[in-house]
Queue: 3 jobs
Job 1
Amino acid sequence: PVAAASIGQVYKAVLRADASPTGERMTVAVKCQRPNILETVTLDLLTIRGVVDFFCTVPGEGNKKLRQDAQGLLAVLDLAATRFLEELDYLQEAANGARFEREMNAVPVMRDVVKVPSVLLDYSSRYVITQEWVEGVKLTDLEGDPKYANEEGAALRADVVRKLLNAYMVQFLETGFLHADPHPGNFLIQPDGRLCIMDYGMMTEILPDQRLAFVEYMAHLTAGQYSKTLDDLVTLGFVSEELAKDPAKREVVGPVLAQTLSALYAEGGGLDKKVEILDQQAQSRIGEIGDKLEELSKEYPITLPPYFILILRAFGTLEGLGLSTNSDFAILEECFPYIARRLLSDDSPRMRSALRTFIYGGGDRLNVAKVEDLTRGFGSFTNAMEAERKVAVTGEGSLAVRSSATPSGQLDAATKELLELMFAPEGNYVQELIIEEAVRAVDSLSRDALVQVWQRLPGAPPGAL
C-alpha cells in the first residue's frame, strides 16, 4: 500500500482504457477497509456507552453535576459514534466526496483554488472506494522536509494554512457541508499550488440558520460587541434563553463572557498564553464576577450543542496548524477576511443588520476604523483567492508563495468587486449606507454653511441657530 490508517489501506492502481470514464488509462487511488473493523468498533462503542450511561443514573443530590456531565458526554458520544460508523461505510464516503466536489466547484472563489478528487462510483462499494489519483506534497511532508526548513518554507506553510482556513470558512458558512477531519495527512499541495482535500468519511452539515447565526456571532465578536454575542450564543444553543432574558444575570455573564472570548479568540498565541491571560483576569474584578458566574452555571449550564462538536474539532486542528507557523496566530483575526467579504456581499436581512451593527456599533455614528477593517479584510480575501485562481487557470503554478500584487495601473480584484457593489443597478444595502452617510454629510455641511452666513449678517443674535 502507498498509505495506511487505522481502518484501511490505500493502493495505487491503473484503470484500463475501456474501463475508464475518460476513455484513456487512468491512475486511481483504491482505499480498502480492513477485515472485521466494523464489528470491533461497534463493540468498543457499545462498551463505552454503557459506562457513560451508568453515570447518567447515579443517585443522590451530591451527584447532580456528575449526572449532568455524563448526560452531556452521552450526547457527544452518540453523535461521534454515528459519524464514526458512517466513516466505515465507503458508499457513504463516496456520496460525500461527490457532493463535496460539486459544492466546492460551485463557489467561484474556490473553484480553481481547491481540488476535490473525483470519486468513481462504479468502482466503489461498502468496503472499497476508488478516486482519481492526485499528485502533490502532503502537508505532513511539507512540515518535515529539510528543504522547507527556511524562511521561504515558513512563508509557504503560512500560505497553505491561510488557504486552508479560507476553504474551511467557505465550507462552514457558505456551502454548509464541512470536512471534519482536517489532519495534515488529508491535504496535498499540488504542483500548480492548488489545495487538494482528501478523505470524506467524516463530514458534518451546518443548517442555513446556523450559518447566519455564526456569521453574526463572529461579526459581533470582532467588533467587541459582547452583549450581542450572548444573544447569538442563545440562538446557537450554547446558552439558556431564560438566562439571557434576565437583566441581572446578563450583568454577571456579559463581562466575563467578553473577557473570556477576547482571550480565547481575539488574542494570538497558544494555550499557555491564553491560560496566562485568563489567570490574570481571575485576579481582577472579572475574577470576582466569575465566582458569581460559577454559581449561576449550576442553574444554567453553558452546553456544547452536539452539532458543534465536529466543527470545534475541525477549527481546533486548523488553529494548531496556524500556531505551528506563527506563535501569535489568532484564529478570529485570520477568519475575519472571509467574514468581511460575507458582510459586504450578502444582501440578506440578517447580514444587513450584522453589517450595520459592525460599522455603527449600535449607535448612529459611523466608525471609520471599522469600515477600514472591513475593506481591508474584503481586499485580503478577494485578492488572495483571485491570485490563486489565476495561477491555476494559466497553469503557471509551482509550490511557492503566491503574490496578490496587481500590476501598476490596473485595479485589483477587490477594488473591482467593491465598485460593482457600489454601482450595481439592482441596488443593495451597501449603496443604501453610502447614500445615508452622504445625505448626513451634506446636511452637516449645509448647516455649517448656513451658520456661517447667519453669523455674518449684521445684528444676528449669537446662538440663534
Job 2
Amino acid sequence: MIQGLETRVAPNSLDAEVAVLGAVLLDNDTLAVLTDVTPEMFYRESHRRIWQAMKNIESRGGDNPIDLVTLSEELRTRGQLDEIGGATYLIGLSESVPTAVYAEYYARILKEKHALRQLIHNSGRIMQMAYESELPVDEIQDRAQQLIYDVTSQETVEADSADGEQAVGLFMEWLEGNKGQPFATGLKDVDEMLGGGLYPESLIVLGAPPRVGKSTFALNVADRIAESYKDEYDALYFAMEMSADEITSRRVAARARVDFQRLRAYKQDPKNNPLTEQDWTRISKALETIRQVPLTIYDRPGMSYNYIASKARAHMRKRGKKLSLVVVDYLQIMDFSAFSKAGSNESSEIGKTANAFKRLARELQCPIMVVSSLSRDVEKRPNHRPMLSDLRASGDIEYAAKEIFFLYRDEIYNPDTDQQGIAEFIIGKQRNGPVGVVKLQFHGAQMRFNSLATGN
C-alpha cells in the first residue's frame, strides 16, 4: 500500500453534485438530458438517494412534477427524508443554482470524479491480485487490463445517440465517405453476395463440420484482407489449435500453390528433397509477401475473451492503426471462466462470449470472425449441410451474430460425388442481405479456397 493513500479522500466534487440536483429542481427537463447519470456517480450517499428518488418520480410518467413537495414525499415514503437532511436540505438544493443551463457541464465533472474513483477501486483489486499471486501472471495482466478498460471505455450519451439532424449527417457521411466500407474477401462471388465483403462492427460466425476446412477458409480470408488493406489496417488471428509456424506454413502453401504435404516431407527429410526448383521460386516469393502483410498471429491454447480483447486493444495502441479483421479460431475451446458462474453451463457461457465479441466488434470498428464447431446432429442427418440450429448455443449465437456462414463439401460424405474439389459457402444469416449458397474451389493439398470463376 502506498504510504498515506488509505487516509486520502476519494476524488469528488460536492459542488458539482449539488449543482446537478439543484438544476433538476429548477427545470425537470434536465433529467431527459442527463440520461447517463446514475446514482453511483454521486460521492455523497444522500445525493445518491435524492437522485434515485428523482428518477423514481420520472419513471412514473404522467404530469408528476419533481419539486420540493413530491421529492420530500418520495423520500419520506422510503424512510430516507431525515437521512438526507430533511426538507431543509432540499430547499437549499433548489436555491443553490441560479440556472439549469450548465447542468451538462456539472454532470461531466461528476462523471469524471466517478471515473477516478473507479480507477482507484479497480487499481486496488489489481494490487490485491498481484499480492496474492494465486493466478498466473498473464491472467492477472489480462484481468488488470479489463478492469482498467471497464472504466476508460464508459461512453457518454453524446457518443451513442443521435437526434434527427445528427442522424442525417451520419447517413450522408456513410453514403459518401469511407466509413462503413466493407473489406473484400478476395472471393468474387462471395463478396457479391455479401454486398462487397465483411463489414466493420460485425460479428461473423463461421461454422462447419470437421475436415471441411473452416480454419483454412478463415486463414485465407484473413491473409487476403490483411494484404489488400495493409496501408491503413492490420489484421489479427487468434489460434488455439495451431502454432504460428504451422499457420505460416499453411499460408506459404496457399500463396505458393505448393502441396502442403510436400512441405512437411521436406521438413522431415530435407535430403530427399520433394520440392522442385519452381516450387522454391514460388515459396521465396510467398515468403517475401508474407513478410510485408500485417497479419499478426497469436497462438495459445484456451485463450479467454479478456485476453483476446486486451491484445487487440494493445495492438491498436502500439501500431496506431485500425484493424481490418480479427479471427478467433475457435469458439468452443476458449477459456470461459470469465463468464462462468455457479449453475451456468457451456451453452450459456458460449452465448455470453458471443455477445461480448459482438460488443468488441463495435468498439474496435472492425469485423470479428469467430470460427465455431457444430453439434453432432449434422452428422446424423441424411443431408449433412449445416443449418443454424447446428450451432452449439445456437440461439444466443444467432442473436449476437450479424452474419452466420457455413461450409460444406459433399466429397467428404459422398466419395463418388461429381462435386470433387467443390465447397459450398452457405450464408445462413445476413442481417442486411440475402441468404444463399456460393460454390468455391477447394484445393485441400494447397490449403486454399478460390472463386470458381477466376481461380483466385
Job 3
Amino acid sequence: MADPEQSPLLPSSTDSTSATSLPTVSLYISHALSTWNSRVFEYAAVLFLTEIIPGSLAPSSWYALGRAGSVIVASRQIGNYIDSSPRLPIIRKSIVYQRIAVIISCGILFLMLRASVNVLHAATPGLVFSLQSELLIVLIFLACIERLAAMMNLIVVERDWVVVIAGGNIPLLTKLNSQMRRIDLFCKMVGPLTISLIISFTSVKFGIWVVLVTNLLSVGIEYWAIARVYHRVPTLALKTPQSHRSLSPSNTSVQAVRRSFSSWLTPFVEWSRHAMFLPSLTLSLLYFTVLSFGGQMIVFLLYEGFDTAHIGWLRTLSVILELSATFSAPWLMSKIGAIRTGRWFINWQSVSVVFAVVFFCYFSDRVGLWGLIAGVILSRVGLWGFDLAVQVQIQNGVEETKRARFSSTETAIQSIFDLLSFAATIVCADPKQFKIPAIVSAAAVCISAVLYSVYVYRAQKL
C-alpha cells in the first residue's frame, strides 16, 4: 500500500518542488490540530465568559480587546524574530506556547466558574466580584500569549512554508492555499458546534475539561507532524536568517523613547509603501466588523434568546457556504485571475452586509433579526473568496526576505481594526445598541470595496 505522504499534489509540473513527493498529510495534520484548538478555544472562551459573567458585552469585549492589542504592540518583534530565526524552532515554540497558555487559561476559568457559584451564597459578594475581575485580568494576559503564538504559527506556515513548498508553482500554491483554508473552515464549523453541543447537553465545567484535555493530547502530535514536513522538504532548511538593526544606545531617556517608537513604526511605514499595500489594507479593513458570528454577535444572539446549540447550527450553515468559496475562488482565479476574482467577491460581500443591516434596522421584530443573520451568512462567501484571492497576490508579491515582517505588520493592522470593533461594543455594551456597531461594520466593508476598486484600476493601467 502506498504511503499517503508520497502522493503528489499535481500530476505533472515543470517545477521540481511539485514534481517530487510532498509530505502533505503531515502538513495538513499539523495545521488541522493547530486550527482546531485555536478555533475551539477562541469560540469557547466567549461562551465560558458569557456563562460565568452574564448580562453584558463588556467581559468578552475586554478579553478580545486584549488579544488584539497584544498583536499591535508585539507585531514588529514577532516579525523580526521570525525573519532572523530558523524555521523549525520557531514553529515548535509557537505550538508549545499556545498549548501552555490554553491549559493554564482553563485552570483560571475553573476558578472563575467556582467564584460565580459562590457569589450567590457569599456574605460579601463584592469580594467575589473583585476576585473575578482579577482572574479576568490574568485570563486576558494568557489570551495575549495564546494569540501571539497562534499568529506566529499562522505566519510561518501560511505565508512562508507553503510558499517555499510550492516553489514558484502558482497552481500548486493555489491548491495548497485552498486546502489549508478548507481545513480552517472545517475546524471553524465543527469545532464551535461541537463545544456548543457539549455545553448545551452537559455543563460549562465539562466544556472546559474538554478544551483542556484536547490541548494536552494534541501538542505531541503537532510537534511531530510539523518536524516531518520540515525534514521531508529540504528547501525549508535553506532559509538565510535576516538581521534587523537594533536600537543604538541613547544618552537620554527621551531619545530612547523616540528611537523605540521610531523602530516600532518603521514596519508600518514599509508596509504602507509596498506594492501590495492596497490589497493588504482592504483585507485588513474587513476585520472591523461585528457581523461575523464572532464574540460580539454571539453574545447579542444569546441576549435575543438563541441558545448555544442554535448559534452553533447557524455558524455551521455559515461555514458550509464559506467552504464553497474555497472551491469557487480557485476556479474563478484560473479563469480571470486573482485580481479580478477579488473584485467579484468583495462586491458580493458588500451587497450582502448592506442587505443585512438594512433589514435589521428597518424591521424591529424577529424578521429583522433573521434578515441580519441571513445577510451575514451570505456575506461570508464573499469574505473567504476575497481572502484567498488577496492571499495569492500577497504571497507572490512580497519578497521572501520581507514575508514575516510584512505579514506580522498586516496582522497588526488587522488587529487594530479588530480592536476597534470590540471598542465599539464596549462603548455600546448594551445589546439593545447592537445596531450601531452593525452599521459601522457595513460601512467598513463598503470602504474596503471602494479601495480595492482603486487597486484594480491601477493594476489594469500597468
